[in-house]
Design brief:
Layout lengths: L3 E4 L4 E4 L2 H8 L2 H12 L4 H10 L4 H6 L15 H23 L8 H17 L1
Antiparallel strand pairs: 1-2
Helix pairs in contact: 3-5, 5-6
Length: 127
């Protein structure tokens, strides 16, 4: 049967030879899958900046689905998603500033910190 090549991005295997590997690595499906994989590791600021420059996808807003999926050139984020992402970016900026100042940062994630902060602010406003 010979050696087989398994592509982690596409989750498929094929006979390993120069022609097949080159054809696969330059294929549209592989390039899209690779881009989606690396997009998982982008920081929130880059995602926010990119999403703010895009126009909203009309089909996604109307039906909740888009035929193009992650390959769509329009934004599939709602206003609430953008606000959450913006809050996450602000939280990350504050955390970096605190780290530069040498402040003692409690263990936990940024989301935990933001949730606690939101609870404190809502409690303060209700009082």
């Amino acid at each position: 049967m010979g050696k087989r090549y398994f592509c982690d991005y596409c989750d498929r295997s094929f006979q390993d030879n120069l022609h097949n590997r080159k054809k696969h690595l330059n294929g549209v499906q592989h390039l899209r899958a690779k881009r989606v994989w690396y997009d998982l590791f982008r920081d929130a600021a880059a995602i926010l900046q990119e999403e703010q420059t895009k126009k909203p996808c009309r089909k996604f807003l109307q039906t909740g689905q888009c035929d193009f999926g992650s390959n769509c050139r329009f934004s599939h984020m709602t206003e609430q998603d953008l606000e959450k992402l913006s809050a996450q970016v602000q939280g990350e900026k504050r955390l970096k500033e605190l780290q530069r100042e040498g402040a003692d940062i409690p263990p936990g994630t940024i989301e935990d910190w933001l949730d606690k902060r939101a609870q404190r602010l809502s409690a303060a406003q209700s009082n």
